[in-house]
């Protein structure tokens, strides 16, 4: 296997019950995610933010290791966070932790998906039982 494994960790979170003033504070949300990216061990390459009228935003963070996206829904006091990092050196769950700490009291439903090819810890080979071999 090469330097990088074909695999990664994908954290997907639906966050709701965010106070009006907090979900509307784009700087607070963007800053928390940027801190989380640093804490996770990921490398930020770039970022694009689109603010919507009358409210809401989408932000995409390009990482050397993959990406983070956030989509806010102020009318629902909610947002979606998607953080995916390839390899084994980053911890994308720390991005979520940093965001949740900044948001304060809220509810969240989170899934973590391990993607790609798992690295085998050892080779497993089937062993024929003597009874099966004798039956042939």
Automatic annotation (TrEMBL):
Pfam families on file: AdoMet_dc
A single cellular component GO annotation: cytosol
The keyword Lyase belongs to this UniProt entry's keyword annotation: yes
Xref: NCBIfam families: SAM_DCase_Bsu
Name of the coding gene: speD
Organism: Nakamurella alba
Keywords linked to the UniProt accession: Autocatalytic cleavage, Decarboxylase, Lyase, Polyamine biosynthesis, Pyruvate, S-adenosyl-L-methionine, Schiff base, Spermidine biosynthesis, Zymogen
Any single GO BP term: spermidine biosynthetic process
Domain of life: Bacteria
GO molecular function: adenosylmethionine decarboxylase activity
Entry's EC annotation: 4.1.1.50
Cofactor(s) essential for the protein: pyruvate
InterPro entries: AdoMetDC_fam_prok, S-AdoMet_deCO2ase_core, S-AdoMet_deCOase_pro-enz
Gene3D superfamilies associated with the record: S-adenosylmethionine decarboxylase (3.60.90.10)
Keyword S-adenosyl-L-methionine: yes
Protein name: Adenosylmethionine decarboxylase
Enzyme superclass (EC): lyase
């Amino acid at each position: 296997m090469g330097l990088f494994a074909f695999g990664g960790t994908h954290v997907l979170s639906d966050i709701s019950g965010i106070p009006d003033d907090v979900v509307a504070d784009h700087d607070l949300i963007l800053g928390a995610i940027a801190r989380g990216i640093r804490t996770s061990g990921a490398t930020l390459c770039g970022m694009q933010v689109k603010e919507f009228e009358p409210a809401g935003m989408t932000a995409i963070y390009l990482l050397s290791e993959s990406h983070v996206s956030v989509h806010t829904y102020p009318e629902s006091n909610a947002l979606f966070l998607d953080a995916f990092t390839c390899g084994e050196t980053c911890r994308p769950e720390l991005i979520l932790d940093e965001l949740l700490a900044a948001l304060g009291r809220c509810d969240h439903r989170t899934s973590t998906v391990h993607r790609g090819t798992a690295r085998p810890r050892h080779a497993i080979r089937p062993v024929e039982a003597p009874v099966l071999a004798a039956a042939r």
